[in-house]
Give the backbone structure.
Amino acid sequence: MMRDYLFRRLLSAIPILIGVMLLTFLLFFVMQTPRAMALRILGPKVPPEAVANWLHHRGYDKPRFLNLRPGERVWDTQFVRHMTALARFDLGRSDATGEPVAAMFRRGMIPSLLITLPVFLVGLCLAVSVALLLVLARESALDFVGALLCVGMMSVPYMAWVIFGQWLMGVKLTWFPAFGFDLAGLGTTRFLVLPVALAVLAGLGADVRLYRAIFLEEIRQDYVRTARAKGASARRVLFVHVLKNGMISLATLVVASLPFLIMGSLVLESFFGIPGLGNLMMNAIRTSDFAVVRASVWLGSLLYLGGLLLTDLAYALVDPRVRFQ
Amino acid sequence: MPTFAPAALARTSAALALAAALAGCGNDPNPAPLRRARADGRPWIVSYRALGDDPRSLDPQVSYDTLGHAVISLLYDTPLEYQPFRTDPYELQPCLLDAMPERTRDARGGDLYTLRLKRGLKFTDDPCFAATAGRGREIVAADLAYAFQRIADPAVECPVLSVLQEPLPGLGEAYAAAKKTGRFDYDRPIAGVEIVDRYTLRLRLAKPYPQILYWLAMPFTAPVPREAVEYYDGKPHGGSAREQFRFHPVGTGAFRLAEWRRGRLLRLERHPGYAATRFPTDGWSAAEEARFRPLAGKPLPLIDEIQFSIIRESIPRWLLFRQGWLDSSGVSKDVFGSVLDAARELTPAFRARGFHLHRDANPATFYLVFNMTDPILGKNRKLRQAIACAYDRDLANEIFFNGIFLNAEQIVPPGVFGHQADLKSPWLRHDLALARRLLAEAGWPEGRDPATGRPLELTLDTTVDDPESRQMAEFEKGQIEQLGIRVRVIENLWARQQDKVDGGHFQIVTGGWQADYPDPENFFMLFAGRNAPPRGSNHSRYANPEFDRLFDQMRVMDNTPERRRIVRRLSAILNEDCPVVLLTHPVAYALNQPWAPRVTSNPLVANAAKYVAVDTAMRDRLRREWNRAPTWPAWAAAGALVALVAGAFLWSARHDA
């Protein structure tokens, strides 16, 4: 049953992936021609012969979708070349630097994970704890103040958190570097604390509201009344029974976001100069490096599909009522 | 045990506090220097700088952008270089060469340039030098010749081959042969490049091309060791992959690459035994005599390490400069108002810090380009003159450039041979009455077609990569519309605009040119008929036989009074014909810390860092002063956290009924 389900899901992923890549390809080259991309990378003063060479060496002088040139194969086109390379997981070389994209990804993954993992773990623990506390204090003044604070925190834009944090902690108090990153064992921590803390704070309001709603849903269930009737304390009911059952809904939310930890954070990485995958992607778009863009989109799509699949699996695993069909 | 909220809170705060403590606090983002002291015991001096991005390539025969050259010129010396202090006019001096190249004529009217290398100069140590057990070997004439061969190698993709193959025989042929066989034959010499002896190279140019000297000061002609190019092939050897040569420079410059953490840091360290150049012995102004005289003739570089932080955004760059973590910075628009007062001087707060402010004129010109093949604009000189006359350049300067740019009166910027400081173009003086008269004479009284009464409609193509370019396009539209003409602004992405300009699909477009080298030829070639796109950068597609004839005469001349006369004539022709509306020569503000004052303001000297000295004692003192962390907020924050956790704990315990 489960094998069939998995097979079906994987099969359905193929047209989705082709569609995503087709869209990326179209969007990228609708915005600019390969020649303009070459000029952007090589510099506007580069003579046309050099541009033509550059395009030829990278296959950007092939037709886009259908090759109707005499003596050449019909499918010898840019899109088919890109797709077949990606299907073989050959990510190719960066158009801008000629560096293997796989090596660039491997290098960017660690800094990205160093930021996203702590943000994910600390954020989750903190949000669940605060949400439970608010549920415990439901309909009291504390709950009201909590809700107010959460909405307040949600209303502050992400950028504002980052800029204010950099100014306060990096400039005014000078506790942490306002910018920079250094992969140097424990020394790395001082570059991580500020971005991680800011990302946790920026996400806390929304997460607490969401988790609180999930737990409130649970607390109205029959089993809660039963537990209370049996003499379990409010705290025990909340932190044992409600938390456990609330985890089902929580798990589906959380698992879906797991694969994305690898892709890093676009805003944090570019504002703090962290050389992770988010930064890599931003820069690839900025510098018209199509090889890196397409590989990022490919990886992102795979991770997204993986995330969705994981969510479904997790849902079935933690909730016995769900069956694969 | 299930999760218990207050305990989890306490644990999280403890973990955060621990992490903060581990971090040792402090906001210095720079990594520790490579060493504490030099081999001779003197302190190791580091200069901290910022780069806007990673260089795309550190191959001198490939890189063709300012950012790449900023690093490459520190790693690779060129046969010639710019004298750092002489900027009016700019002047070349020998770098790897013993003297300026000797120019002679051959019987067929060609030019011979004899280049003699200084003896005993060495490449930096590198494992690629197997014959010398990793020690850098001596630089010889064959290395210079090898650079020219690489320019012609299709696999290298040198962007200036097409420019150099015209005067230098053999380059084009070598390229074509390699294209045919699929492999460049490095054992076959280039016809125009002759190795005379171990230290002497002769360039045999087919026709006079004095600009070749400027090319000898650009990284394209920097010698590279063949061993390094062959060793660093980017392929696996014995189980481990070697880097590509473009990421593993082995050069002759004042520094060598010590470390490159992509997206974060590029670290250079002094090239031990560097001997190609010394601190100049003259050229500075009388006011700088006391500062530079003690340095005259000293070995270079004066510092031991350069840390280039890769910082893509201007705000963090400024932030780190203000805290003292960077030695120099530009003044971006975001901070202009807080750094400079109305008189364009440093505000008192920054003057008190001892910052040095510099105004750097760039050898560049910005303009509006008319499409000379356009049926309306191309044939109507008076119409172009009227538009030029209507344009208020002072107002544009005030609104968009803080009033610091220079109004351009000729295409040739200041410092370049032939620039006339006193020239005033008759059609650039912002005179609306004159503009209206010209417009009427052009056949469009009050901007309308007298036959139909319909207003003249023109298009203005512009890039919209940022909000400012949109505002500027609106301003330009407004300036032209003062005459009753209607202007439709077409917003393009940069790439699309390049395509339109090259295809000639525009009426008016914004443009500009930054000097490759400070010779009038580099600017006037923008209007030579044969340089229309796609072959060249004559974007206006201006074609004037008299201009072309004078241009061809001027481009091969030495800087004589006769050449100056022709340059003036060329400027006059352009100013009269108005294929472009000349706008500005850009000027940029830059700041230096008091401990690392600037040595040269010559924008063509990309390796100025080798001349810079740093007062490290002053830097340490001021950094401490500027980054004093108050301790009370830490205690207050810790107290608040403890109160919060305890409060939550007590509250939940009380409600646990």
